[in-house]
Design brief:
Layout lengths: L14 E5 L4 H12 L3 E6 L2 H11 L3 E5 L5 H15 L4 E4 L14 H28 L3 E6 L12 H21 L4 E8 L2 E2 L4 H4 L2 H10 L6 E2 H12 L10 E4 L12 H6 L2
Parallel strand pairs: 1-2, 1-4, 2-3, 4-5, 5-6, 6-9, 7-8
Helix pairs in contact: 1-8, 3-4, 4-5
Length: about 270
């Protein structure tokens, strides 16, 4: 497997704010941005993991215990970032959860929780961050959507709805704020090896389905998504806004029909 090599210090003097930062894609992105010179402000409910990451990254980081469902906390989180580091240049709205269930069986409280964590938090984060990005002269917002926001999944009704809304929210934000020098994009990961996806990836049946249906034959790594986030947040993506960057090993390149090559060469 090819080793990921970080480019030059693209984020020297820049400050980035990350939600869902204590593990998975958020933690990988924090490490990646810090390795390229950023100071990173980390938000998550998992205080133990968040503090451990803060210690790992040192003076270039600070952790803030954050419930992204709470507008007041998101506002305080964003202000605390600016108070600590003096500015804000990049935002990664990454916090998310999932839930299995079809409409007749899905508890409304579960529905509301998924919408709150996956969608409301993105709105709250952008609402708080955009005035600070204006003050910095512009910047970049990256939202975590999903290929599940581009297409449907069996039994993931709430997650599909929330991530689909993040996709179009990202587009609307992009056109609203393009003239202010604020770019807004989203990453759309497929199956990625993270704590959130652990139950699916390790499920005996689902793991076989992933191996068969992902053209690259494996789930992705959090660091591979972090590389895409770093690109979108950097000046290397200076003319990109309103884009959905798919990171899925080729899953959405297929039509969903039978694998004819496998069928016709079987046996």
């Amino acid at each position: 497997m090819a080793k990921l090599v970080a480019p030059a210090q693209r984020f020297d003097g820049r400050v980035a704010l990350i939600t869902g930062a204590a593990s998975g894609i958020g933690a990988a992105t924090a490490r990646r941005l810090a390795s390229e010179g950023a100071r990173v402000f980390l938000g998550d409910l998992d205080e133990d993991a968040g503090r451990a990451l803060e210690r790992e990254l040192g003076d270039a980081s600070q952790f803030f215990r954050l419930d992204v469902r709470d507008l007041a906390q998101v506002d305080a989180f964003t202000q605390a970032c600016v108070d600590r580091f003096g500015r804000l240049d990049a935002v990664f709205n990454n916090a998310g959860i999932g839930a299995y269930g079809q409409a007749p069986d899905l508890d409304p409280e579960t529905w509301r929780d998924v919408i709150a964590v996956d969608l409301d938090s993105v709105f709250f984060g952008c609402r708080a961050a955009i005035p600070q990005l204006r003050h910095s002269g512009g910047g970049a917002i990256v939202n975590t959507a999903s290929i599940s926001g581009l297409f449907g999944d069996y039994g993931l009704l709430a997650y599909n709805a929330a991530k689909g809304a993040v996709v179009n929210l990202t587009r609307a934000l992009a056109i609203d704020h393009a003239r202010e020098g604020i770019r807004v994009n989203a990453v759309c990961p497929g199956p990625i090896e993270t704590p959130l996806a652990k139950g699916l990836i390790e499920h005996a049946v689902v793991s076989v389905e992933y191996e068969r249906n992902i053209p690259m034959g494996r789930v992705g790594r959090a660091e591979e998504v972090a590389s895409a986030v770093a690109f979108l947040a950097s000046e290397d993506a200076s003319y990109i806004t309103g884009a959905m960057l798919v990171i899925d090993g080729g899953v959405t390149a297929a039509t969903g029909q039978a694998n004819f090559t496998r069928a016709f060469t079987a046996g």
